[in-house]
Specification:
This protein is mainly alpha-helical and 424 residues long. The chain has helices spanning 2-44, 60-66, 70-85, 89-97, 111-143, 149-183, 189-212, 214-237, 255-261, 266-269, 284-291, 299-308, 341-347, 352-356, 373-382, 391-405, 412-416, 419-422, and strands at 310-311, 316-317. A two-stranded antiparallel ribbon has the order 1-2. Bound molecules: heme C (HEC) (6 copies).
Amino acid sequence: MRNISLILKQFSRSVLLVAGLAVCGFNANAQTDAAKGEALFKAKCTACHKIDTRMTGPALGPQLTQETDDAYLTKWIQNNQALIAAKNPKALKIYNEFNQAGMTVFAELSDADVGNIITYVRTEWKTMQEERAKAPAGGAAAAEQGPSSLVVWGLIGVIVIALIVILVLNKVIGTLERLLLNRQGVSLIEEETAEEAETKAARAAVFKKLIKNKKLVFFVVLCLTIAFGSWNWVTMWNTNVHQGYQPEQPIKYSHELHAGAMKIECQYCHVAAFKGKNASIPSLNICMNCHKSVKTESPEIHKIYDALGYDPNTAKYDSTKAKPIQWVRVHNLPDLAYFNHSQHVKVGGIKCQTCHGQIQEMKEVYQYSPLTMKWCIQCHKRTQVNSKGNAYYDSILAAHEKFKKGEKVTAALLGGIECAKCHY
Ligand code: HEC
Ligand code: HEC
Ligand code: HEC
Ligand code: HEC
Ligand code: HEC
Ligand code: HEC
């Protein structure tokens, strides 16, 4: 008996082992497929598709979950034009639904490639939905992160009012008690006044003594001067410093959504930051690259349409009806200071976030840095300049060598014939 049970145990163990290995192998296979699919999807499809939202093309997560005919999908992705030309009803339907926008033909993708992309999109969409199902709880927790300032001020108000009420009631009760005693013919007034007079005199004496104490008076005056002086100092330094400034913008455009969640690169909209002095605010045409078809029903997006004189029903622009959006400027140096974005972003290699904070987490932009002269200077003192591969520094080093050898150094060698030195 014992032997049999031992054999059975060993047998079941080896079965488990084989099953386990099989599962692992299968998993590894699925993973590499999805990983290959992800790479292909990111390289070829993200220009027009997202998994969870509609862009130029449909949101692929729901699309590929609804449409289960993989043979059709493979044909579509490899050559949608052929399907449309052959008047495939499914293909025609989606083609017309998207105003015949037309998708790129991907003849170079093999059946396996397409299969990998589809696997990736479906699994990714599934995890996204699972995460979303969990999200509300997390969101609520985040919202409850500490009381709002309104609540705090409300509490302080209630406490102050309560204190005042207590004081007033105390006074009233005292007076009433005295009146009651008076009525009953018990007069305490004379004794009290006598006592009070005594204490008053004593207090006056102490006060006089204190005033005569010159050291103490000096100390008090000094304290007051320091307090007032430092308050003044801080206020003066902070005049015209707008750190934290967060104006309300005419459209509820959110960096948290576009630059954060959707990971659109800063330069997609602020391309000028790498090219010149100003980073500049993007024109609404950039928004239309997506919003012609994204969230077309939103009143906020209709503000974009109105500003451009665009009619979403006819998809036509009427420039006579256009009235530009007045974005409220957040950052603003006075004219007497020259600040150049490309010098810092491109030459200096400084990240936008170093100066502007975590913009990709801001629903509404606010001024993160003080933008004072002290702020500019402190960074210039602390930041090491990267001179490698920079022709400007190469020429300075060359000039330096010449100076050392006592050779002739011209202004031209120091960049004196570069156009931007004299023109801007
Ligand atoms: C240039 C933009 C563009 C690119 C790139 C693009 N698509 Fe599309 N896709 C579209 C548009 C637009 C549609 C809607 C149909 C139409 O107008 O042709 C669409 C539709 C689809 C459909 C829906 C077909 C149906 O009948 O349900 C699938 C699936 C699809 N695309 C997959 C992909 C995949 C996978 C890639 C990457 C290999 C890709 N697309 C790349 C623009 C694009
Ligand atoms: C889809 C376009 C878009 C993208 C991407 C984008 N921005 Fe913006 N940005 C805008 C618009 C529109 C405004 C003006 C409205 C506002 O202030 O919110 C703006 C305003 C700003 C401002 C304030 C400008 C002022 O008035 O002083 C800063 C700073 C800024 N963006 C930095 C960034 C950074 C950093 C990134 C990348 C992490 C980024 N933006 C990505 C469109 C974009
Ligand atoms: C690359 C595509 C893309 C670009 C460019 C883009 N957006 Fe968006 N935007 C989206 C998507 C996608 C959503 C919707 C997300 C969702 O489903 O809630 C959105 C949402 C919005 C919303 C919220 C609408 C609502 O009612 O929820 C506003 C407002 C908005 N965008 C304004 C802008 C402005 C202004 C610009 C130009 C500076 C811009 N967007 C550029 C893709 C884009
Ligand atoms: C070294 C600090 C610094 C860095 C890095 C920086 N900025 Fe700025 N940014 C500023 C200052 C200072 C201003 C105000 C300029 C003015 O008023 O002339 C500004 C203004 C802006 C504005 C308002 C419009 C304008 O051009 O004045 C935008 C938009 C902006 N920055 C975006 C960006 C983006 C995007 C990046 C990254 C690619 C970036 N900034 C990197 C300091 C910086
Ligand atoms: C986060 C650090 C940082 C901040 C903040 C900063 N700078 Fe700079 N700045 C640099 C670096 C690094 C360089 C050198 C870039 C290079 O290699 O040319 C530079 C270079 C410059 C230059 C060119 C100097 C030259 O020799 O040609 C000017 C002008 C300048 N900054 C102005 C400003 C002003 C004005 C401010 C404040 C509004 C400011 N910077 C804020 C880091 C900073
Ligand atoms: C050392 C300083 C300096 C440098 C470097 C310089 N310029 Fe000039 N440039 C001037 C001055 C000063 C004038 C005005 C002369 C006049 O009006 O007679 C001028 C005039 C001009 C004009 C004529 C403008 C007009 O309205 O007539 C042009 C165009 C021009 N420069 C282009 C350039 C270009 C391109 C470069 C770079 C290759 C350059 N400059 C480099 C100083 C300079």
